[in-house]
Amino acid sequence: MRLLHTSDWHLGRAFHRVTMLGAQAGFIGHLVTTVRERGVDAVVVSGDVYDRAVPPLAAVELFDDALHRLADLGVPTVMISGNHDSARRLGVGAGLIGRAGIHLRTEPSAAGTPVVLRDAHGDVALYGLPYLEPALVKDEFGVDRAGHESVLAAAMDRVRADLATRPPGTRSVVLAHAFVTGGAVSDSERDITVGGVAAVPAGVFDGVDYVALGHLHGSQTITDRVRYSGSPLPYSFSEADHRKSMWLVDLGPDGSLDAERVDCPVPRALARVRGRLEDLLADPELTRHEEAWVEATLTDPVRPAEPMARLTERFPHTLSLVFDPERAPEDPDVSYARRLAGRSEQQIAEDFVTHVRGTGPDPRERAVLRDAFDAVHADEAVREVAR
Fold first, then answer.
1. 44-61: string of b/e by CB count within 10 Å (b at 16+)?
2. Cα–Cα dist 331/335, whole Å
3. CA 232, CA 262: separation in Å to the nearest integer?
4. pLDDT tens digit string along 118-150?
5. Where does the pLDDT of residue 322 fall: very low under 50, low under 70, confident under 90, or very high at 90 and above?
6. How many CB atoms lie within 10 A of CB 99?
7. Residues 157-196 pLDDT 10s
8. What angle do CA 268, 273, 277 make, to 5 degrees?
9. pTM of the entire structure?
10. To 10 degrees, the CA torsion angle through 282, 285, 291, 296?
11. Which residues pair with 275 in a beta bridge?
């Protein structure tokens, strides 16, 4: 069975205020063409269909168009909700849409209920695990402490239990939206840390033939059977070196696997340039970036006059301007934001305690801080679902 694995469409999202709807529509067209021309038997979409819980109308219309075009192909599609989606909104009408061969899996309670497809070699069971916000689903899965690993492990227990009841030789595919240990992150993914931990080990998914992951925006292989497709379009300059693609996965009669990357159309190249303004304007090596979307980091000790206007004369598609003056780390003028860069909210809070009191928090106090942050995150998740 040939599967096309994609995720993280983020319909409705802009790139530094530049609308991406045209590029997203182009990707949908590319997806449909790939399904038709490459003999795809099923499409799997591993979450973050939309960029936010209440997407703009234009994004909803594009999603509706995608559903109709996929249904017209007669190729089954399985989709799950991600942490950016409103699971309840995305799942509206799932029963009716399912009759057209588009299977929306947004309910955690259905983790152990697969979409079963058949080919000449038997059944393939596709299990959709929507994004599992630990604070919201721990009771559903009967876990004592809300954590990503515990709820995903419980969901996978249901998958394996159902799979054990199916005919011998049934092949299995799991769609999941999670941060798996070993994955490389980018700046455009929303933090899903709970209890100081966001990642889950790949071993959680043992026992199935293929795991189609969503959440991280870079296409990557965690193990041969556990892969991220990545987002089809860039959503931050940290993705400048990404090769945007989908996975074309051939699942053999015995569960053997062969995977090929299918490139996605790129609306415009990304470039990150760094240096003093005059050097950036004169460097002949940067000519290749003149038509790219550019993020420029200026290292001038003193902020130059009208830097954006001058940059856009050479790089008309400059979208982001960052100032990082050449100063020693101990310089008192180093910005607060620069001192905090790369530090978690837990680390920042612990540093504050150390600064005020002279000593850092003890293990009990660190646990109190962690629980407080988790409570805030859980409340934000509840509010997002209720919107």
1. bbbbbbbbbbebeeebee
2. 9
3. 10
4. 999 999 999 999 999 998 999 999 998 888 999
5. very high
6. 8
7. 999 999 999 999 999 999 999 999 988 888 887 777 655 5
8. 125
9. 0.87
10. -70
11. 298
Tell me the β-bridge partners of 270: 293
Spatial CA neighbour of 222 closest among 243, 241, 197, 204:
204
Q: Write the single-letter amino acid at 346.
A: Q
Block residue for tokens 């004169």: 282
Taking the CA atoms of 369, 183, 140 and 206 in sequence, report the sign of the dihedral they define: negative
Q: How far apart are CA 144 and CA 162, in angstroms?
A: 23
The pLDDT, as a whole number, for residue 363 is 81
The pLDDT of 25-39, averaged and rounded, is 98
pLDDT at 379 over 70: no
Is the alpha carbon torsion for 239, 183, 164, 113 positive or negative?
Answer: negative
What token pair was written down for 222? 């965690």
